[in-house]
Write a structure and sequence with these properties.
The protein has 91 residues and is mostly helical. Helix content is 57%, strand content 5%.
Length: 91
């Protein structure tokens, strides 16, 4: 795996984890009973995005290290993921 591939893999994993972490402990305006005029009651009042971004970095790094280790070691190859041996056929 090259450097660019590793960075792209980390970025994809980071965004997937971030989108899962965002709703955790989210306090909306409706929950707090302080709905601003012109906004939706489901709009976040307390979101803690900086803290969630740091948590995401740690979780994503652990997942990335596991996935990168599997890819580099060759434990799972393209042949293992090829259903009906179609991945290796030319178009």
């Amino acid at each position: 795996m090259g450097v660019t591939s590793a960075l792209v893999l980390y970025a994809v994993i980071w965004w997937m984890v971030f989108l899962m972490v965002i709703p955790v402990r989210l306090k909306t305006q409706g929950d707090l009973g302080e709905v601003e005029p012109g906004t939706h009651a489901g709009s976040p009042q307390v979101h803690n995005l900086k803290k969630k971004a740091w948590i995401t970095c740690g979780i994503a790094f652990v997942i990335w290290a596991i996935v990168a280790g599997i890819i580099i070691s060759g434990w799972i190859t393209l042949d293992d993921l090829s259903f009906f041996d179609r991945a290796l056929e030319p178009l």
